[in-house]
């Protein structure tokens, strides 16, 4: 076990089978294909990439919301990938998730009081009166109040609903929270408020985050390290500052080139990616990025690039660095 590691993902694979119809063989889709990374205590670890690259599947697999195909998920050194439903239910107190769409993730028929006291009740924590008190405290921590207790999710704005989703995740005092595109469904005007709330709660409750996002400007702002995913694989992993200052993989370079300049005088040359992410049901040969890569060489079309480790643990999977 890596010292101070909260989460270690080792050779995680999540494959699906798709029916093509009568008398046709099933197709195997490699949504996540042999990825490994470690998340340290108190860290915010970013997972980025275009939609369909496997980052949300990875997030759900970490919390065992999806059964995994192969690999290990170690939480404080203990492999949780094969825990029973009951063992996993107990552990969920320590591992929570904040979803992209707060409206879809909150039961519309329940009041905020019911939504927030439920996790405490399910885990047998506190008396009824204490649960009420904890709920009010948590609402106040996320910028709402006791006044909102008997209201329903539809009575809130998107930003307030996400605050409730965050309160529901934090009320159990977890150690690890996987946030899946936590602000992408919100108006730009409230995105920074919700990001600041997540950062405030991280300090207050010593939280560790896995932060899934396609928005690299947010990722640059909030994360300590970042893994870039493409077609189910990690193609680059580095400390955030190093990644943004010196991206190595052509895919990462293209993603970062699309981030708006932080200063009007800063000149940025946008690298436009050709086409869309290919279907994981029929991935390109060799380096799966090769049909879109402007630096593609002959070897890239036939041979998968190995993962190469450079200074400070900066890793990249690309033949250019062999
Ligand atoms: Fe481009 Fe080749 Fe590197 Fe893939 S391995 S990213 S195709 S240069």
Q: Could you provide a short overview of the structure?
A:
The protein is an alpha/beta fold and 322 residues long. 30% of the residues lie in helices and 23% in strands.
Overview of this protein structure:
This protein has 322 residues and is of the alpha/beta class. The protein has a domain at 5-94 and 172-251: Rossmann fold, CATH 3.40.50.300. Helices cover 30% and strands 23% of the residues. The protein has ten helices and twelve strands. An eight-stranded mixed sheet has the order 6-7-8-3-9-10-12-11, with helices on both faces. Strands 2-1-4-5 form a four-stranded antiparallel sheet. A hairpin with a 2-residue loop joins strand 4 (70-75) and strand 5. Helix 4 (112-122) crosses helix 5 and helix 6 (158-170) packs parallel to helix 7. 37% of the residues are buried. The model has no long low-confidence stretch (mean pLDDT 93). Residues 249-250, 287, 289-290, 293, 295-297, 300, 305, 318-320 line the site of iron/sulfur cluster.
Order of helices and strands: EEEHEEHEHHHHEHEHEEHHEE
Strand order in space, largest sheet: 6-7-8-3-9-10-12-11
- Helix percentage: 25-40%
CATH superfamily of the domain at 5-94 and 172-251: P-loop containing nucleotide triphosphate hydrolases
Label the overall shape: globular
Oligomer: single chain
What fraction of the residues are assigned to beta strands by DSSP? 15-25%
Overall pLDDT metric: 93
- Total DSSP E strands: 12
CATH third-level topology of the domain at 5-94 and 172-251: Rossmann fold
List the total number of helices.
10
> What ligands are attached or bound here?
iron/sulfur cluster
* Helix-and-strand structural type: alpha/beta
Q: List low-pLDDT spans.
A: none
């Amino acid at each position: 076990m890596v010292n101070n590691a909260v989460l270690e993902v080792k050779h995680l694979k999540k494959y699906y089978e798709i029916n093509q119809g009568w008398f046709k063989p099933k197709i195997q889709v490699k949504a996540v294909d042999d990825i490994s990374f470690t998340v340290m205590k108190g860290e915010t670890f970013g997972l980025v990439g275009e939609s369909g690259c496997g980052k949300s599947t990875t997030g759900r697999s970490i919390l065992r919301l999806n059964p995994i195909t192969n690999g290990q998920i170690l939480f404080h050194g203990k492999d949780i990938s094969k825990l029973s439903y009951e063992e996993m239910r107990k552990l969920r107190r320590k591992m929570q998730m904040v979803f992209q769409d707060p409206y879809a993730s909150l039961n519309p028929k329940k009041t905020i009081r019911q939504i927030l006291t439920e996790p405490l009740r399910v885990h047998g924590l506190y008396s009824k009166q204490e649960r009420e008190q904890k709920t009010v405290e948590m609402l106040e921590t996320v910028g709402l109040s006791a006044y909102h207790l008997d209201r329903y999710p539809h009575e809130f704005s998107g930003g307030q609903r996400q605050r409730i989703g965050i309160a529901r995740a934090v009320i159990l005092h977890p150690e690890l929270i996987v946030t899946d595109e936590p602000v992408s469904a919100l108006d730009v005007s409230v995105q920074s408020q919700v990001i600041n709330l997540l950062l405030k709660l991280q300090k207050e409750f010593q939280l560790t985050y896995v932060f899934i996002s396609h928005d690299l400007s947010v990722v640059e702002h909030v994360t300590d390290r970042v893994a870039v995913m493409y077609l189910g694989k990690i193609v680059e992993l580095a400390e955030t500052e190093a990644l943004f200052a010196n991206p190595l993989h052509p895919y990462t370079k293209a993603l970062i080139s699309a981030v708006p300049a932080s200063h009007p005088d800063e000149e940025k040359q946008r690298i436009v990616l050709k086409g869309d992410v290919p279907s994981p049901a029929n991935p390109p040969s060799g380096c799966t990025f090769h049909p879109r890569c402007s630096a593609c060489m002959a070897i890239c079309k036939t041979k998968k690039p190995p993962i190469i480790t450079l200074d400070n643990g900066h890793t990249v999977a690309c033949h250019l660095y062999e």
